[in-house]
Amino acid sequence: MQDTLSKIVAHKRTEIAAAKARTPLAELRARLADAPPVRDFVAGLKTKNSVALIAEVKKASPSAGLIRADFDPVAIARTYEQGGANCLSVLTDEHFFQGHLDFLVAIRREVGIPVLRKDFILDAYQVLEARASGADAVLLIAECLPGQELADLHAAILDHGMTPLVELYDAENLDRVLALNPKLVGVNNRDLRTFVTDIAHAVRLHERVPSTIPFVAESGIRTAADVARLRAAGIDAMLVGESLMRQPDLAKAVGDLLSQ
Ligand SMILES: O=P(O)(O)OC[C@@H](O)[C@@H](O)c1c[nH]c2ccccc12
Known about the structure:
This protein has 260 residues and is α/β, with parallel strands linked by helices. The protein has a single domain (4-258), classed as Aldolase class I (TIM Barrel), CATH 3.20.20.70. It is built from twelve helices and ten strands. An eight-stranded parallel β-barrel has the order 1-4-5-6-7-8-9-10, surrounded by four helices. A two-stranded antiparallel sheet has the order 2-3. Helix 2 packs parallel to helix 6 (124-132), helix 4 crosses helix 5 (101-110) and helix 4 runs parallel beside helix 12 (250-258). Indole-3-glycerol phosphate binds at residues 56, 58, 118, 141, 167, 188, 218-221, 239-243. Belongs to the TrpC family. Its EC number is 4.1.1.48.
């Protein structure tokens, strides 16, 4: 049976082809001039909070289904910012996560903190889309980008002045990721093939990442006790979506998580 990640990637390739047909590259390039200037995502992580928070705007996911029915992306983003989040992550995948690039555009306009485009990036066209939509950072998933593709997209993101967040799950991808001399590394606690999350996964791999590289623990982080564990391990930042989005009182949820 085909695993979820390969299914998402296959679907994404059809979406990219459709987007290119709808908005030719030259047209997309022309839109770059109107994009807001890039904010420094890594600098955003260095202020406040013992473990910096990248708060994720996420309506649904393949593992959880619908997470939050009452979903106003801009209101959620504002609440995250007011609650003390360092940076935001916005899901832009429509088919599997019920996200949208328009959410990114609207949020980036309405908040003062840096914003990451969270999607399955396979093509430099999507990097341009991200910048044209106001993204300050772009996620790259090592498991989706074999061989030279990872390095090429990493360079494309840097060329546009944005920060690549290079994510891996498989330990075997670590050397390939570190060879990029990355500005920001993330370890996903969720195996995108099985959906199982385990915070110990990021804690273990963190030990193999030089302390000069800011490190983000991603997924499955729910409680202040989880945050204390990350802090004790010396982890710089966390990416949290589902556990926040499930709380009716978002401002309180952010405060509770950051009370550590
Ligand atoms: O909702 P969670 O378990 O707090 O996880 C957030 C984030 O880490 C997760 O959405 C994520 C991490 N890497 C991804 C890659 C694609 C889609 C989603 C993700």
